[in-house]
Model the fold of this input.
Amino acid sequence: MTFDMAGHTSTLMKLGFSSNQAKVYLAIVILGTPSINGIMKLSGVPREEVYRKLQELQERGFVEHIFARPFMFRATPLECVITTMLKLKAEEISKLQIKTEELLRDFENSQKRETLEADKPQIILIPERRPLLERAKKELESFKNSLDTISSWKKGINWISSHYDLFMKALDRNAKIRFIIEKTEESRFPRFVEELQNNPLFQIKTIQALPPACIAIYDQKILFIDTSVKTTFIESPVLWSNNSNIVGMAQIYFETLWSNFEIRV
Done:
């Protein structure tokens, strides 16, 4: 009969045994009443560690010491051990459930405080990559009326490509989207941009020079200012603000540029 020592060791570890405790206990179960040498040989655990684990297993009531020459050991029946460990695991999960409920309550209170704080004028630096991607997605999902954006070609096309579905959903809820984007005469908008342009609520005006700042204004209330115009989307940190004065200045900057250019198709 073969035994899956690695698999059974893993199972006992999930029940709460350490790795070496599990190996020593299983060696005793398999061998019956082995000596130290037998346990050491089958388990692969060094002699001194075998002694330590035997002591721990005896204290837990999982191994009995048979006084003979040489000393031998006998395992408490596996069924009893598993029942005991499952009971302890259930008690542990029950205690954990109580702790997680406390954590959720505290977190709920913290979220309420954060919501109240978020209503105050703020300026936040959002790191690049995942945090920025998540914040950009959140704003695109939640804005209701308007999105005004000034962008470089690289950053704008990458942003639209990454969130094409969210732009489509925004248009479906009748939100107005305006883009001022850097574009050379040789550049051609990708097909997905042309598809968005089929909706009259999506408008693009182009400028030949790289804009001095890349910004996005949501509902004239939330402002993103990119810290670099030369990177692609999410490759540089972004300043986020709900400060009405700062958002207002950015909106004037956008409207000034918008009024100076024709809509390009």
Notes: The two ends are 76 Å apart (CA to CA).
